[in-house]
Structure prediction request, 493 residues.
Amino acid sequence: MTKILFTTSQLEHPPKGGPTLRIENSIKALSSVAEVVLVSRLPLQQIGGEQALQYYHKYCSKFLFVTEHNAFVAASRLLEITRSERVQVLWLGYGNISYEILHHLGLQKCSYPVVIDTDSVWSRFILRGLSYHDRLEDKIRIFSEGWLKRWEEYWGTQSADITTAVSSVDAEYYKIFTNRIDSVQIFSNVIDPENYRGVYENLEIKRPCIYLAGTFWPGSPMEEAAKWILEKVLPIVRLSVPNIHFYIVGKSATDVLKFKSNEHVTITGTVQSVLPYLSNVDVAVVPLKFESGTRFKIMEAGICNIPIVSTTLGAEGIPVKDRHDILLADTPEGFASCIIELINKPELSRKLVTNCQSLIERRYSITTAAKEADIILRFFKHPLFRKVLFPDPGICEISERLYRATLNSDLTTMLAFSIILFNHLMRKYGNHPLFLPDEEREETTILLKQMKRMMPNNSNVSEALSLIKATDMQLRNQVKAISQKSEEACLSD
Prediction:
């Protein structure tokens, strides 16, 4: 059995959000196909104390801590443990924020295979938020953070032996950056159905009702989603269902949405378990406008037999079918109509929950993730496998500057650096349709034009606009060529 070192900076028991739920279920899945040495990059008191320690000991042969904040020191400690424990594979859990560790592992000539385990395309998650902020300063911050992260995804995919993605949608993005066969693999977000089998009575639930759960912070996808329901969807629903109640549950919800509570809206902060709410509501809503990855909200509602209404993006990466597994809608009127329909048509709700629960049990259980993990670990035993050498010194130098830039609170410095990285990556990948999708391209062009007016002599901003214009032409020519081939094929038939 392969012995792996699984390390993460997101660990908590019981898990109270998507990131820690992914980590817990990843550890469960890996432990069924490998021997796991678990290394927390958080101290014991932050992961749940002795209760967490006892829980995770069931799934690992050793539980250790590396809590140094300095990435170079942390990477050194991880390599020491890897050697002393005779580990065969290093698995960086929650890899989206582990790229700096990966960088320092490479600088220290790590000779062990490394998995960078992502839970989303984080740059896409950030940059999708451009159109949901009005202040120029916010847009500049989003652009800067998004392109610093996209640089990490670029060199990180080239540097790790395996990059995992939670869905085929995310996998296709990471594949842009590598021509190594099988170096991008699916390792899904999954849930453990056994954790949802209980009966959870909540006699205080006001029905009929809808439910939204997540993690909230100012400017977050969850804040935008909740406000969209409150301001645009619920007024329409109340015309048909006057007594509809809305439950909003999750970390910092009471802070971000203060003053939104009333007799028809209940907002809680972090709760010990969402199940007493989720198991007793009429409809779960996933009204996300910008995000990335796959939603535990859909998996949990599906396994709990609660019908779901989601935006198309909210269901991204999960192969649900509209009106078969869930209802999909992207306008306030359409979303409200779906909620009303589920409340008034119990037979439709029963059909959807039966199909959705079957899909989740079949595709998103611990067993699924264990099979995916086994495929990944067998990759390292293939006779043709060769450890990836760290990228060229130029990439290392830019990465060092990146980590210095992210420590610098001066937004001007981060912006200048991010535009340089934007231009570098656009020259390499700008003509790939998945690298800069249409919605990002449009918002980025608008922002860069604003910057151009502010900084008319900035050559890097001018180059960025030129690169977008040039790649627009290339992409249009690609589409035109594909269209012509299709027409020719039809004529020949």
The longest strand covers residues 3-8.
